[in-house]
User: What shape does this take?
Amino acid sequence: EAGVVQSPRYKIIEKKQPVAFWCNPISGHNTLYWYRQNLGQGPELLIRYENEEAVDDSQLPKDRFSAERLKGVDSTLKIQPAELGDSAVYLCASSADRGADTQYFGPGTRLTVL
Amino acid sequence: GNSVTQMEGPVTLSEEAFLTINCTYTATGYPSLFWYVQYPGEGLQLLLKATKADDKGSNKGFEATYRKETTSFHLEKGSVQVSDSAVYFCALNTGNQFYFGTGTSLTVIP
Assistant: This one.
């Protein structure tokens, strides 16, 4: 069974530029998470989807970040415009449903903002 | 609130040494507890989990016991290998959200 797929794996951009990350969860997983992981830290939740509905986006900086999960499968996280402090690894994870006690992570996208 | 506290690293051990990485938690209700491992350049992988008090999770020689009385979930391995070098994250799931510790970097030297 394929795991969580993310692309790109690495992205280098200049500040004020837009950037987008893509995630394809494990087939059949209804719940999808986007996390940000700063260097030397644990993942911090940005947004959680149940199917196509964003049910927890309280930690998403909505002035510059946006996300969508059309048709309840793939998801895209966008930053516009990027700032220097956005440099981090952006992780996508999925779980079978909200009540599932295990989530599975993708390899992440390492973003560097210059 | 809910939170996870891990011992700070980095930890450096010789091959075949005994490993303990401490993890304590604060949570309402009865969370599930996890250890995830992150190898360089990769995402987090589930190492083991425990879903209720006194449960012991185990995998690849690693073990952790869910201790409700001390709100702890310490990770142990009797004999580490060079291939165990990675960052280890303790985490809890309240049923609504996951909370991760800051991670403990382990380096095992031959």
